[in-house]
Amino acid sequence: MEPISGTVLTGRDRLAEDVRWGLGQTQKQLQPRYLYDALGSQLFEAICELPEYRITRAERGLLTAHAGAIGVGLASPVTLVELGGGSGEKLALLIEPLVPMLADLRVALVDVSATALDLASRTLGQFPGLRVAGYQATYEDGLRRVTHGRSGDETMMVAFLGSNIGNLDMSAARAFLGNLRSVLRAGDRLVLGVDLVKPAAELVRAYDDPLGVTAAFNKNLLGRLNRELGADFEFDQFAHRAVWNATASRVEMHLESLCAQTVSIPGADCRVRFVEGESIWTESSYKYETEGIAELAAAAGFARRDQWVDPDARFAVTAFDAC
Ligand code: AVJ
Q: Which of 163, 209, 243, 250 to mutate to test the pocket of ligand 1 (most atoms within 8 A of CB)?
């Protein structure tokens, strides 16, 4: 992998500032991107193996079956960009049929997690000669850097998989797709993997598994604040909660304080008071309907080429053309 260029945008100062702001809100909140430090990234990989969390397996199945159709007609040179791809394993499925078809295929990985970039570049080692560049950055900054200085004949295919778009609320998702479209050109392609609405019990089980891996993933955020900001959160004093908010069509993850307590976070220069039962909202995972995905993307200037659905896990992969 080429060396990571530019500044790391999720440095300690940024974390401290975001923590101070988020824990000062009436509904305390932390951005989900902070779940992915080295330990959090590995816990997320473990989540993907859980029987109750079907997103990864369902998407892998769809990509295995339809990777050829997803990339059909792309002309060399092509840059395949993956946003928040984690292990790179699903990207490999997309790349496989492209390698014999394209003389010039490059890959750009954009992820806030250094661990994820490491895992992915190792996974892509299976394609000798493939040029892989890693960008440790947020989606927007990474995209800007990837598309900057792009040559005239280069086609881009952007993969935004694993229902990562589900972390964004609907208006942020719309803005995100609009921003994505604005840095792309007509004829570029977008592949979106999105989890669909399904029965509440199934959704809650996927985010509150009986083994407790998701609870550990969520609580690790407190561990991260302890490690990086010198905070004194105690794991036993917080409980992992996953709730389906049907009105908003999202699963919410919270960390609920089990008692009245005050936590100090020296690195963020603050002390935070909790009443019993008060929570920190750490993540939203929005769930869509198949038509909703197409409408959202259409509004941003993406035309649906094809859509494949796993009817059992209720997960959709949709390919779009920038138009
Ligand atoms: C990586 C954001 C798609 O929301 O399903 C998994 C993260 N959180 N279990 C998701 C997650 C709890 C995941 N995304």
A: 163
Where in 95-154 does DSSP place strands (E)?
Answer: 105-111, 131-136
User: 26: which 2 tokens?
Assistant: 């009436």
Report pTM: 0.93
Nearest atom (ligand 1) to Cα of 55: 5
65-113 residue pLDDT tens? 999 999 999 999 999 999 998 889 999 999 999 999 999 999 999 998 8
Nearest protein Cα to ligand 1, atom 5: 285
Distance CA(30)–CA(296), nearest Å, equals 26
Would you tell me the crossing angle of helices 290-299 and 170-183 to the nearest 10 degrees?
A: 50
What residues are in contact with ligand 1 under a 6 Å CB criterion? Answer: 47, 55, 162-164, 166-167, 207, 214, 283, 285
CA 202/CA 218 separation, integer angstroms? 19
- Match 């036993």 to its residue by tokens: 236
Closest among 171, 160, 1, 188 to 85, alpha carbons compared: 160
* pLDDT recorded at residue 5: 42
In this prediction, residue 4 has a pLDDT band, given cuts at 50, 70 and 90, of: very low
CA of 65 to the centre of ligand 1 (A): 23
